[in-house]
Amino acid sequence: MLIGEWNWKRPFKSLAFIYLSLLLVALGCSNMLIYHPPGAGYRSTDPNIHTAKQSDGQQVGLFYLPASAGMPTLFWSHGNAEDIGYLRSRFQSFHARGYGILAYDYPGYGVSEGAPDEQGCYEACQTGWNYLTEQLKVKPDKIIIYGQSVGSGPACWLASQQPSAGLMLVSPLTSAFRTVTRIPLFPGDQYPNIERISSINTPLLIIHGDQDSVVGQWNGKKLYELHPGPKHFVDVQGADHNDLFHLAEYEILQELDDFWGRIKHE
Q1: Is pTM beyond 0.85 here?
Q2: How many domains does the chain have?
Q3: Residue 142, number of CB atoms within 10 A of its CB
Q4: Is residue 5 a part of any domain in this protein?
Q5: What pLDDT is attached to residue 19?
């Protein structure tokens, strides 16, 4: 079908066949490709774990550590192959410097109910935000919205709708499909950060490894370029997608300290 007997129509037929095949994969399997929930890394009775109900009644798992006096809380959207239980030690590293943490799990992760998809992740994000601002009474000007990898999608979505002290993106994507294709080839793309970032006026901090083989650093640079500012980009030399914190935890924490310092003095 792809090669066959040569004629001038054959390349166009081949390209059409390839495109339609990839389109079916993109539309039919995108959620399986994007989300990889691990086995639950915690229980609802564990320390620092909270739960909240979405508007549809489904449960969302939350992790909370309060901020020290004068310090902000990070509202944390995590990557696609981890849950809030697996990130406990990382949360503690930030908390040791005074930062509060409110992290939430996507549907199908940890104790959060349902199956992960884009809209469900937005709803879980909104539920976590409501819990932090309404139940825990943390003011938006003391919250830095944090998103890592696929978590940059809910983070940018939230930052485009809610006021906050700032937005911190770690290894962010321009959109789910464009991370692979660079240009918009298929309908049904998820997490269009590239379309939202120009409308976000809060200060921006982007941290991205220059050897990222999963979400190329060009994604973070493109978002940085389109953001109206104020903004700061941190190029972590030698870091791939999954070893960023292992190689540069102190640098990341120091950059966040500097980011918060700039926010306080604006």
Answers
A1: yes
A2: 1
A3: 16
A4: no
A5: 47
